[in-house]
Amino acid sequence: MRIGLGTGSTARHFVELLGERVADGLDCLCVPTSEVTAQQAASLNIPLTNLETIDRLDVTVDGADEIGPGLALIKGGGGALLREKIVAAASDQMVVIADASKVVDALGRFALPIEVNRFGLGATRRALELVLSDHQAEGALKLRSDGAGTDFVTDGGHLIFDAFFGRISAPEALSLALLNVPGVVQHGLFLGLCKRAYVATPDGVRTLND
């Protein structure tokens, strides 16, 4: 089985469990979505490869920051959105594991991460602010930093703006508008990628299908 390994606190639990199955003899080959996940998987002796060596995956298992109608997602809170989206798109199916707090009636309560190129950052910011205005964002645009106040840098060497919308009423239109900004590398709206979500609730696990 060829498996994409997500990034984040929930995906980390999946990788731990997968490591136990590999130790018991499960035959798999995995593509991690971040350097952090790659290090964890390697420590558990999970066989790793990349999308230069293989071009398709059977499944990707990942977490989500928000799960909206039709299994539209916001992802990227951990800063790995570009690689997560590449791996998800190269998979026959994407499965999300999350707790019930991540299920929302409309996307946008969680800040939308937007990965951008360093070059022309001021021009990119101004263009993104216009997009936020056009889509009636309730909040502002903020360049992500770490706890020490240093700019957060992705595994690909890019920066991240977090956009606070409050409510995203037209995710498809917003996706296109963001990708039309030249400095934008990718964004955290995952539309039409997730096929199934397993959501932990106080009454057990609930399955959501697209």
User: What is the oligomer described by this structure?
Assistant: single chain
Radius of gyration (CA) equals 17 Å
- Mean pLDDT, all residues: 97
Q: Which term fits the overall shape? A: globular
Strand content: 25-35%
Q: What low-confidence regions span 5 or more consecutive residues with pLDDT below 50?
A: none
| Count of individual beta strands | 13
- Residues in helix, %: 25-40%
Counting helices, strands and paired strands, the structural category is: alpha/beta
What distance separates the N and C termini?
23 Å
Order of helices and strands: EHEHEEEHEEHEEHEEEE
The largest sheet, given as strand count, sense and whether it forms a barrel, is: 6 strands, mixed
Description:
By secondary structure, this protein is of the alpha/beta class. Helices cover 27% and strands 26% of the residues. The strands form 3 sheets. The protein has a 6-stranded mixed sheet with strand order 2-1-3-6-12-13, with helices on both faces. A 4-stranded antiparallel sheet has the order 8-9-7-10, covered by helices on one side. A 3-stranded antiparallel sheet has the order 4-5-11, with no helix packed on it. It is globular and about 55 Å long.
